[in-house]
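Consider the following assembly input.
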Amino acid sequence: MSRRRKLYTNARLLDPASGLDVKGALLTEGDKIVDLGPKLASGNFAGDTEQIDCQGHCLSPGLIDMHVWLREPGAEHQETIATGARAAAAGGVTTMVAMPNTEPVIDEVALVEFIARRGADTAVVRILPAAAVTKGTKGEELTELGLLAQAGAVAFTDGEKPIASPRLMRRALSYATTFDLLVMQPAEEPSLAKGGVMNEGEVAARLGLAGIPAMAETIMLERDIRLLEMTNGRLHAAHLSTQDALDVVRRAKARGLKITAGAAPHNFALNELDIGDYRTFAKVKPPLRVETDRKAVVDAIADGTVDVISSAHAPQDPESKRLPFAQAEFGIIGLETLLPLTLELYHNGSVPLLKLLACLTCNPARLLKLESGRLAPGAPADLLVFDLDTPWRVDEKKFRSKAKNAPYDGRRVQGHALRTVVGGETVFQRKRES
Amino acid sequence: MLDQSDRYVDLNRAVEKKQSSLRGRTIINLFFENSTRTRTSFELAGKRLGGDVINMSVATSSVKKGETLIDTAITLNAMHPDLLVVRHQDSGAVALLAQKVGCGVINGGDGSHEHPTQALLDALTIRRRKGRLEGLLVAICGDILHSRVARSNIHLLNTMGARVRLIAPPTLLPAYAERLGVEVYHDMRKGLTDVDIVMMLRLQMERFHGSFVPSTREYFHFYGLDHEKLGFAKPDALIMHPGPMNRGIEIDTEVADDIHRSVIHEQVEMGVAVRMACLELLAQHLPNWRHSTPAGS
């Protein structure tokens, strides 16, 4: 690692952790931030300091994406750690947490180490492994949570699979308190949701598709919160999509429970009508809900009920999506649209900019106990320079991800990453596009 | 379309049934799901109009059915059919297939979504008996949740000015069924009161995941159509069923075979006429270039 100093000048410094929003400069040395502020002037630095002119654009901590499905090992034709990382860098993401739903499932120390090593060897951004809570994500036996954490697992989840058994979930939460581990759970009661392919409601009735009731989310979340109360564990409800469930979180937080909540862009950028005429690219979990639920997610981000926005990047190959709706796989890719879709909420006046950035930086960093996610002397030089305003159209042909399964093709958005810096090194720089 | 179907009903009753409007046209019946009456009646309809009809029943493996679907569509398309009649077990599958082919496609039933020609033949049957559709009170009873016939009928009957009631236990109704523009009843006797048409649906046990009703015995007791429950409908109410019937489950044999009330066999007859009208209408809109292009060019 070079000890070279780099000065990012002429930037709008945005640090949600401290509430900083000021014009100024930021200095890094090697892989650390050493100084920042409005008074840092380029004239005070000798020629050996590389100067990077941000041209008035925003400079924030690099984004931390807590929920990404990379398909390595097992389905490298859909996505590898390397291709996912390139997509992440282009989206402004400097750290991402890889879900354990690979083949094999990440449920052993050697596999956690494998993901971490593949990340270090092949990825341009930081890859942090999440490990399974239960062996093989079968929902039967606990994995070695403590040893897996020592090996580098930053969170524990069965990924896309909810832990059905309340007894096992109680044990997991309870045992995890020993090491203060974070358990993440998709809020979906599996037997209620079984067979469902989209939100249960009028649209599903018309299309003749089996529904996933909104209630399946509330029930699972309520159950998990009761278990949290018994165990005093730490639970992150991944990707909530309904008004009811968000109200449940609101009440639980008011009671002082260690519950946090996440949201995925598709649940605040789209609603169930976007399925249209059986568009399988819009088949996703949590399912696209009704408009009132979509608005409830936006409100919950604004009032802090939602702590984290993560992409839920779930790559699928065309053969998994070019199928009748009921047979197609779930999932939307999201690394490269995470920032612009989130910024929509700023541009339409729903949520202040720093609040949105907090959901993408310091909040996930706090949950994962990371040093990054903030602009402060001593913090890792994981940075994002982004253009807040420039309008552009999403073009699936330009996705760096191996997969193209996003229902946003042609969508008009504003803002994108200009430069992504990991550990002081630029890993992505946007070329001027026509 | 119903007027044209009427003319074909007369033709079908004549000795000489052969027409020539589909001469030279190739029609493929592509059925991914078993069917007797729909396939047969499309086949007869095509043949009576002078077209060349081929039947394909695609046995589907449990996995990767969809690959078969798109591959089959592309393969068939290369053979230049003029019309495809498609049935598939998944909602939306026919529309997906239609995107991949260059010929006309008729939905012969897709999953729990739509079965438009069934609704048309039901409308024809009702109109011939009652002289109209507008203002009639129609009860659709039974397994609405899994029924493409119900969805197409709700759509058609509402469009034509009839009033639709759905009668079923809540477990066999889709969520928010009342938003489909219907009145919802859970009690057969109340629901059947003063209706002009009683449409019974088959309990689609092959689509059941888990138990929707405790037993067929209990189902028949509360929702099976017998003379006693039928007594609540208008005295001249007609009984319909898209078939195949589960006698003793959703309908009592005596009622099904009541020649004064049941028009179930007439529905089958109307099916051929309606499908002739559908095929002809679509064929009229086909581009002719496909035929004038010499082979191999």
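Chain B touches chain A through 26 residues (CB under 8 Å). Ask yourself how this observation constrains the way the partners meet.
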